[in-house]
Amino acid sequence: MVPALILLLVFAALPALLAGFDRGYFYQIANLALIFVLLSASMHLVTGVAGLLHLGHAAFYGVGAYTAALLTSKLGLGFTVTLPLSGLVAALVAFLVALPTMRLVSIYFAVATLAIGQMLYLVMLNWVDFTKGPNGIIVSKGFELFGVSLSGRLAAYYTVAAVVTLSVVAIGRLSHSYYGNALRSIREDDQCADAMGVSTVRLKMEAFTLSAFFAGVAGSLWAHMTGYISPGDFKFSESILILAMVVVGGLGSLPGAVIGALLLILLPEGLRALGDFRNIMVGLVMFLSILLLPKGLLGEVSALRLVRRQLGAAWRNTGPGTGKGEGIGWR
Amino acid sequence: ADTVKLGYQLPLTGDTAQYGQDFRKAAEIALTEFNAAGKPFKVEIVFEDSRSDAKEGTNIARKFVDDKEIVGVLGDFTSGVSMAAAQVYKDAGMPQLSQTASHPDYTKISKYQFRNIATQAQEGPYNAKWMAAKGFKNVAVIAEQTDWGQSVVGGFSDAVKANGGTVAFSEFFNRGLKDYRSLISKIERAKPDAIYTGFFYEDGAQFLKQLQQLGIKTPVYSTSAAYSPKLIELAGGAAEGVHLTSNFLPTDPSPNVQHFVEEWKKRSDGAVPGQFPAQAYDAVRIMLAAVERAQPSPTREKVRDALAQTRDFPGVTGKTTFSADREAEKDLVKVEVKGGAFVPVAE
Amino acid sequence: MTAPLLSIADLHVAMGPQEILHGVRLDVPEGAIVAVLGSNGVGKTTLMRTVSGIYRARQGSITFRGQPIANMPAHRIVQLGLSQAPEGRQIFSNMNVRENLVLGGGEVGLGELDRVLAMFPILSERLRQNAGSLSGGEQQMLCIARALMRRPTLLLLDEPSLGLAPKIVAQIFDLIGRIRAEGVSILLVEQNARAALRIADHAAVLEDGRIVLSGPADQLRDDPRIAEAYLGGHAH
Amino acid sequence: MFDPYYLQQLAIGLSLGMTYALMAIGFTLIFGVLNVVNFAHGEIYTLGAFAGLVLISATAPPIVAVILGALAIGALAGFSLERIAFKPFRRFTDEASLKSRAMRESTLLSSLAVSIVVREALEIVFGSQMRSVPFDYLINTPVRVGPVILVTGDFIIFGVAAAMLIGLQYLLTRTRVGLAIRAVSNNPLGAKYVGIDTDRTIITTFVVGSMMGAAAGILMGLYYGAVFPAMGFTPGIKAFVAMVMGGLSSIPGAVICALILGISESMATTFVSSGWSDMVAYGFLILTLIFFPNGLFGARRERV
Amino acid sequence: MTHLLEIRNVSRRFGGVQAVGDVTAHVDEGELVGLIGPNGAGKTTLFNLISGFTPLSGGSVAFAGRTISGLKPNQVARLGISRTFQNLRVFPNMSVFDNVSVGAVGALPQGAFGALFGGFHKGGRNRSAEISRRSWEALEAVGLTHVAAELAANLPYGQRKYLEIARALAMRPRFLILDEPAAGLNDTETRDLAAFIKRLHGQGLTIMLVEHDMTLVMGICQRILVLASGRKIADGAPDAIRSDAAVLEAYLGVDE
Ligand SMILES: Nc1ncnc2c1ncn2[C@@H]1O[C@H](COP(=O)(O)OP(=O)(O)OP(=O)(O)O)[C@@H](O)[C@H]1O
Ligand SMILES: Nc1ncnc2c1ncn2[C@@H]1O[C@H](COP(=O)(O)OP(=O)(O)OP(=O)(O)O)[C@@H](O)[C@H]1O
Ligand SMILES: [Mg+2]
Ligand SMILES: [Mg+2]
Q: Per mean pLDDT, which range of A200-204, B260-264, D136-140 is the poorest?
């Protein structure tokens, strides 16, 4: 809970900082960064925790965004309804494609997700009658809650921050629980995990579906935030971008995924002054960060150390002999 | 005001940077001229790189909107990014003039969206008529799978049918496709009299070369988007005989065209500008003219109104008038590739 | 007295911030079997790996035939005639038994193949089988066989009897004796202290990264401390 | 009789498949056989093409010299790539790192970062537009084979790919170097114990694989007549897919799957539409993996 | 009375190798059985056949009266058979506690829902507590509580062996199979391990173990099965086995 509270505080206090500048630009970047925080956190579940390279995440983000956009433009539904539905539809699609493919392991899994992602992208692009194809869709409604508009600068920010915080906390709970441990065991040694009674196929499927759910939620946020989506927003390169966020931050660490997302969204914006050279700089920073900290900025191990140092006493105090040993191990 | 600021969002890096870089060059030519003309005020253009990425495009839009001194925005390149950014400009009341955004709904977003490009609703029927006049009744049409390609096929096919012709074959390909041979064989199987194509020069050059490889002689027609000297450079002899439309001819003897072409050549190792840089050059000048008309104290609203009143603006792409729905009405010319050059066809 | 074949002096090795060996000194005379004993995790394997050039020494020297080899690249050390049958076997599991042995032969080639296969007949039945699909004991034999392929001057064996059936263990120790008789010196790490002390000429006991006891093997065999710690309690 | 139209489409598919195979060979050597995650191969391919182009525009040498030039650049690029993006990550020997997933994937990011830097740098130096290759150098003169039309390049690419394939197969299965490559990929620590210079083996593999990548790049440049910074991307993905579909470590497998991909794309264009052709190719991949979870020619997983 | 584990005419071929051929054997509730045999005799393969890792080529395996051949390893595990591996397989980048908890999770119904909303409803809270309790218990049984927060990769070899056993115990199995638990331990450590296994057995756990250390096997096992070349060549009390001519010939060697 402690990191969740910190997160909450940071997110809540940020506008106070931003308000001083009175710039919509900062809010925009904050919102965008938050959306990618959610995307990278959701990929963290599959790639960081369960150790499965996911090369098609952006497609589920797209499915979510398209769900929101289509529900809005065809049925006139608002954000309150599209947000959960986007997640559910993305999860459903993920579940269906996962059925035949989740038995795959290692790189075969990765290339299957690549193919799935590309196929979904092609559907968005080529099924013109349904998705409007390359024409994209204008999403005429902004954020709202049961009809109350939240599209003001601050309200929009808080909407995004609230959804993202809740989702990240949920992902945190999942990955720092016995459930997360079961997923981690798949990453470490799936055959051995199998022998321990962990049903690897089912868990992989769940993790994949759940991560698609959160990606779908992120998609809905994006659709309502920009007001216009097109297939180009969900290309393969976006999947790679999200993957890079998870890796830069430290594969296996949720704070790492969050920081990686912030870094890779803020850095290119921050480097605008460099003009045409800024993307080279982004590449260099990525390279240096991984070179100096090969386990990522907050790798699994260092993250563990951090937690342990903080909760060192708690660890010892909650041993079985102390009477309050229940429920620890993952806080 | 002494200095007026404009924003220009465009892809300066990434896969489409070649277009953005050209736009910046064209804009700089226009701006230098304008500022050198001894006006009582100076104009400054802020260029921001969007990488043809909607995320970055909207970020830039917010940034421009925040800057109270910016009274008008040019760009973006692709419709997707232009449309996403337009959502921001709509709310902020910022006039936006794109040199290329071709999405049919772009100008419908709000009264602040303008574009300086002939739409396919105009170009399609024009070409259909041209082909019908040549006696091509049974035609094939292919286009890239983008919003623009969609409008190419739509605008053209309807017109063909209206003229009593038939569309024997119609298909989209993904942009950046390298190998068109399968598609070409398939087109040929439908035995069309002519092929109408919606592509940019990169895809066009590949298509034409492979058409030649397969020994196919069916005449090819295309849109102004393919009008670039790079088409001939890349396709070589294979481009020979291609028909297309354009509203810019570097060979046009009129002084403003020649001036632009000269300036362009100076900055591009002697290369001749194509259709898109010309559109960008005109777009910038149209915007500058609007700013001038909105003097002495231009605001976004005033610039918008001034833009809307653009009538018969004498650009290098012909005279431009914004219709009530902020579309540019352009005069098209017919061009054919002959002897390794674009040659106007009089017919 | 001639200089020892392998001489380790004041060796310090660290993994990250943690130092594992704190000044080990050990000699392997020409033609001798030297056994290193010690409980789990005291650094025996670390010592062996450092000698083979897998780990870097932080401080200290290792000399092999008078040539300093500390921090020399692993492959050069092997080429000098020092092979190891390492802990964890480190065989090539996706390659077949024959390919494993060929790799073991290195530039020296396949001259030893027949002789080595004669020592481990079960391997000759499995030449085309993937090494990874061998049983645990078979893999262990392959690992030792691979180290022998180069006809080393000094052979390092890290727990060679691990996972082998009693009969084969006896054979292995027998074999170690025979290899020595051919003039190969051997540095042996072994949990089966009884058997190790029986065939070794010298022995050393490693504890917490330091040699705490060393001397001729028969003396150590009678040392009560050894009996208590490594031989299951009752003195020999 | 069989409609020559389908024969033509089949031939086109094969020729397309050959172009994927050309890229897949070097890619599979590094990624599949040596087993290091390398996302920068596409940039090597692009560098090869640009090297050839620069050479052509500078001195207009004979075509063989152009290819040799590209090979040299490929070798240099492969060497530097390994030094910059891969070697630094072999400095860790502690066990937690060796077995850490994050460590294993770190070269994914380092190679990705290098590829970003290289591509952006190419864009700044050469611009991102397509550059044309002088027409004398193109290898696209039509050749009629019975009812089917191909171009000279198809035969050249076939020849080069076959030579690379046979050469590599020979190298990997018959020579000591090949054995060493497989050993390093299978168990780098074990390789040290048998006296293999792992660093040198890895560099050699990178150099050889990158030379093949660069050769593929320039050949494709001459084949399609266009060279541009992003040209490595699509073939890179196709090569990746072909490699995995073929079973990761099997180069002939990757080549066969590249051909399958090419044919399925042209057949999809024939029977469905061009826009959906990739869909069919990816669908095919998924189907293959459902029935062959380790690729068509992949080894089974190790025993437990 | 039915046996806890019944192996009937089980066989397994790998290409030309008959790893296990027509083996029939059983283990009763509460027994401590040793499985020995030369290297490559098929002991590990037999364990793999029981635990579902390797499909049978012939025969059948039943556990507690129920046929388990054809089940997936995790299904077998949830029926109460848990195992360790010959070549130590801990999860290196997870803490000791987390390693063990995987075993506990494996034995219980798994689902994201419980973990997600665990804090808010009773079932989830109980699950979490239960897993935690079982894990601690298992750690305590092997005496590793003091390193619970350590990364498994940082443990010395001997502790890793115990960790693997603890992980298997956290599943609260009915039947525990151990593949060479004493490999790599010295005599003193082996003696401790033997005492530990005996203690587990004393608590009512049925155990079957493969081992090459005869002191351990002969010292603690009630009954010993001997495999050679994939076939069962003997089955009996330690004393009988020790003097069995076939076993001496195939396995023990003449002097030991
Ligand atoms: N690569 C490594 N990374 C981190 N720690 C290591 C590494 N290798 C060894 N250690 C640590 O160093 C200490 C000594 O280990 P080593 O393997 O040398 O012991 P050993 O005497 O061979 O034990 P065993 O009898 O179990 O083989 C142990 O605490 C181990 O955890
Ligand atoms: N996947 C496989 N492919 C081919 N042969 C195999 C495979 N698995 C096992 N074998 C063979 O089956 C035989 C039995 O192996 P198993 O691992 O069961 O032996 P074991 O009795 O456990 O021996 P050890 O005591 O050495 O561990 C061995 O000869 C081995 O080579
Ligand atoms: Mg050791
Ligand atoms: Mg075994």
A: D136-140
C-alpha A48/C-alpha A207 separation (Å) is 11
Closest partner CB to D266 (pick from B13, B182, B212):
B182
The per-residue pLDDT for D22 is 92
Tokens standing for residue A70: 């289509």
Cβ–ligand 2 distance for C94 under 6 Å, the answer no
pLDDT per residue as tens, chain C (236 positions) = 578 899 999 999 988 778 899 999 999 999 999 999 988 888 899 999 999 999 989 999 999 998 999 889 999 999 999 999 998 889 999 899 999 999 998 887 788 899 899 988 889 988 999 998 898 888 999 999 999 998 899 999 999 988 888 888 888 898 899 889 988 999 999 888 888 898 999 999 998 889 998 989 888 888 887 777 766 554 33
Chain A nearest-CA residue for B21: A276
CATH of C6-231, one of 2.130.10.10, 3.40.1190.20, 3.40.50.300, 1.10.3210.10: 3.40.50.300
Query: Does C44 contact ligand 1 (Cβ within 6 A)?
Result: yes
Cα gap B152→E110, rounded to integer Å: 54
Residues C46 and E157 sit within 8 Å (Cβ to Cβ): no
pLDDT of residue B271: 87
Give which of E90, E187, E211 to mutate to test C binding, by max C Cβ within 10 Å. E187
CB B66 within 8 A of CB A24: yes
Interface of D with B (CB under 8 A): 5, 8-9, 12-13, 15-16, 19, 120, 123, 127-130, 132, 135, 140, 142, 149, 151, 224-226, 228, 230, 234, 265-266, 269-270, 273-275, 277-278
pTM over 0.90: yes
How many alpha carbons lie under 13 Å from residue E22 in its C-beta half-sphere?
1
pLDDT exceeding 90 applies to what percent of chain A?
Answer: 42
Chain centre to alpha carbon of residue C56: 18
Mean predicted confidence (pLDDT) in D119-134:
90
Structural domain spans, chain C: 6-231
Look at B150 and A128 and tell me if their CB atoms are within 8 Å.
yes
Q: Which domains does chain E have, with CATH numbers?
A: 1-80+173-256 (3.40.50.300), 91-171 (no CATH)
- With a 6 A CB cut-off, is E38 part of the ligand 2 pocket? no
* CA angle at E89 for the pair E84 and E91, rounded to the nearest 5°: 125
pLDDT tens digits along D240-279? 999 999 988 889 999 999 999 999 999 999 999 888 988 9
3-state secondary structure of D91: coil
Subunits with 3+ C-beta pairs closer than 8 A to C: D, E
Angle at which helices A178-188 and A200-226 pack, to 10 degrees?
110
Please give the distance, rounded to the nearest whole angstrom, from the Cα atom of residue E103 to the centre of ligand 3. 27
Atom nearest to D98 CA in ligand 1: 1
- Which chains border D (3 or more CB–CB pairs < 8 Å)? A, B, C, E
Ligand number, closest to the Cα atom of C42: 1
Q: Is there a cis peptide before residue B296, judged by omega within 30 degrees of 0?
A: yes
D275 and A125 within 8 Å at the Cβ level: the answer is: yes
Length of chain E: 256
Binding site membership of D141 for ligand 1 (Cβ less than 6 Å) = no
User: Which range has the worst mean pLDDT, A12-16, B149-153, D147-151, D260-264?
Assistant: A12-16
Using only the alpha carbons of chain E, give its radius of gyration: 19
What residues of B are in contact with residue D282 (Cβ under 8 Å)? none
Distance (Å) from CA E207 to ligand 2 centroid? 22
Is the pLDDT score of B209 beyond 80? yes
Record: contact D140-B213, CB cut-off 8 A: yes
pLDDT band at D46 (very low <50, low <70, confident <90, very high): very high
Q: Using an 8 Å Cβ cutoff, are E29 and E71 in contact?
A: no
Q: Which of A306-310, B332-336, D291-295, E111-115 has the lowest mean pLDDT?
A: A306-310
Interval C125-149: pLDDT, tens: 889 999 988 988 889 999 999 999 9
Query: Residue C18: its pLDDT value, please?
Result: 82
